[in-house]
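Deliverable D4.2, example record:
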Amino acid sequence: MNKAFIVGRLTRPPEARTTSSGVSVTTFTVAVTRRNNREEADFLNIVTWRGLADNCAKYLVQGQQVAVVGEIRTRSYEANDGSRRYITEIQADDVEFLARPGSNGNSQGYSGNAGGYSAPAAQTRQSAPKEDDLFASEMGDILVDDEDLPF
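Output generated by the structure prediction step:
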């Protein structure tokens, strides 16, 4: 199984291109801190295609926190000097747009998944329901004590 899950911040603005056949591709680099030493980071190259690439190019900014799910890919090419170069990158299947720079870690509510752009959460919902109201229509007048629950 080849699946990568990372959370980090963009090191520079995303770079958008179009292939000769008209397919959108956007690349960006994500800095991911290490679990054991938060002062060290790995810089991982991310590649997105088609609609996901369009969303990433349009909405991502340098310094923004993202969560990326995808496959690790390795490719090679011949450099101008004739040497063989190898590149390891993550081909993203899903990119979640998290905190933007200066937002104090609050999520912006954007999803860059392959299904398309989702509006900010604040625009799609009026307000989150209160916990007591979540199941009010289903529970009716039933009162349940936590000690009576089987789990």
